[in-house]
Each structure stands twice: as C-alpha cells, then as structure tokens.
Design goal:
By secondary structure, this protein is mainly α. It is 66% helix and 2% strand. It is globular. The two termini are 19 Å apart.
C-alpha cells in the first residue's frame, strides 16, 4: 500500500474531527479551494518538468496546511499552498526539494504578518492517543528505517523535556502534558516524517531527527519562540545535504514517481 493514501485518510479524518468536534472555522469552499489549488499547481509543474502528476503528494501538503495554519482570509492559505508546491520544483538541489513543502509554506506566511497563525493548542490533548496510534500505523507502512527521523525526534524531545523538568524541580506531569500536544504529534508523524526531505541513510535520519528536536526545544524553552518545531525543521533542512554527503544512502522514491515530484 502506498503510504500516502494512509496519510490522506488520517489527515481527512483529523480535518473532520477538527470541524465537527473542535469547531474549526473551515468551510467546505475553503477546503476545496486549497486542495484544488494544490492539485492544479502540481499538475502545471509536473507537466512543465515532464514528471508523473503525483497528486497524492500535493493533497498531503494541502491537508497539512489546513490542519495547522489558521487565518480569517482564504488568501493566506492559498499563498501557503502556492509556496509549498512551488518550492518542490523551484527550491531544489540535485533534483531534490530542499524544504518540507507544507512547513515552508506555513512558516513563510506566518512570518509575513499577523494575518495567519499556528496555534499549538488548537488540537487540545484529548486525541493524543489516537494520533499516536495513527502514527504507529504509518511506521508500519513506511518502515522504522524511513521513520527514524520521527522516532529520534520523539525520543530526544521527550528526554529534553524530562531533563529540563528535573533541572527545574518540576513534577513529571508537566513534560507528560507537553508531550500530549496534538499539533506536535501531527508535525512529528505527518510532516517531519516526509522521506523526500529527510536524509537517505538510517544514521543520517537519526542525526537529523535529534538535531531538529534539540533545536526545537532550544527555540521554545530558551528563546520562547512559539511554533518552534516548525522553525526548527526549516532551519535544519539544509543540513540534509551535508548529512547525505558524509552519510550517503539510497534516495527514497514514492511508488510510481521519480525525482522531486
């Protein structure tokens, strides 16, 4: 089974839960517009570069943006999608896109101004176990080797939180509560895990996930920057090139595709 379809199923379920249970203000028109633009841009770029359409990848990026990014104006969501899809074809090194598309789109838009934002607590903490289960299914489909970035990130980030709590003398309920963050789990399992923008080797993935975790923890708890895990991913992305040079491995290719599509 192509793991992208599993990702799509989980993302759609999360979107429905957010709308029906958490009262997210996402109208059907807004959802259709965002997904349709992602698909249209994907088709235009893949035709331009003579590549397979790979529409599931575009849908994954669009849904990731819908799950995390909030704005009162549709235009900001569309801009995030435009940046995300375009970056896969225009910001590349050795025919491989450098940044996680949806993360880049979200970060650029929230840096432009206050019209769009990410609220880490928007998903609450009630669905963390369901998200953990869904993430476990993705590990089974892609394999622990390709999901090593997420596994390393989770382990190191958790150790950082518990270590910091011990240093401060805080009870362990505090880091446990911090780990039960829906937005963090969505990021770890459905954004950070993108095998097209992570190192090619197992050792490289472990190193990369460790660095994203440490950088994200530092940005959030030492510099008090909100949405630190998104910034950490973007800042760490160029490191993939260096890791692949010294810890080479077999490049990942989605079924039925080739190159950076």
């Amino acid at each position: 089974m192509d793991p992208r379809y599993y990702q799509l199923a989980v993302q759609i379920a999360l979107l429905l839960f957010g709308i029906l249970q958490l009262q997210f203000e996402l109208s059907p028109v807004r959802i259709v517009a965002v997904v349709a633009l992602a698909g249209l841009l994907q088709l235009l770029f893949t035709r331009r570069y003579h590549l397979p359409a790979n529409l599931p990848s575009a849908a994954n990026s669009a849904l990731s943006i819908l799950l995390l990014l909030r704005s009162n104006a549709l235009g900001w969501l569309l801009l995030a999608v435009l940046i995300a899809i375009a970056s896969k074809f225009l910001v590349t090194v050795r025919r491989r896109h450098l940044f996680n598309p949806s993360a880049l789109g979200i970060v650029v838009v929230i840096l432009i101004g206050d019209a769009a934002w990410v609220t880490p607590g928007q998903w609450g903490r009630e669905i963390w176990l369901l998200l953990l289960t869904a993430g476990g299914g993705l590990i089974l489909l892609i394999g622990p080797t390709r999901m090593a970035t997420t596994l390393a990130f989770g382990a190191v980030y958790a150790l950082s939180l518990f270590g910091y709590a011990a240093w401060l003398g805080d009870p362990w309920q505090i880091p446990l509560h911090q780990l039960q963050n829906g937005a963090l789990l969505i990021f770890a399992f459905f954004m950070l895990s993108d095998p097209k923008t992570t190192p090619a080797s197992l050792a490289g993935c472990l190193l990369y996930g460790t660095w994203v975790a440490l950088l994200g923890w530092a940005l959030q708890y030492l510099f008090f920057i909100p949405n630190a895990f998104l910034y950490a991913l973007i800042l760490a992305s160029p490191l993939t090139l260096l890791i692949n040079q010294y810890l080479p491995g077999r490049a990942f290719v989605w079924p039925g595709t080739r190159s950076h599509s």
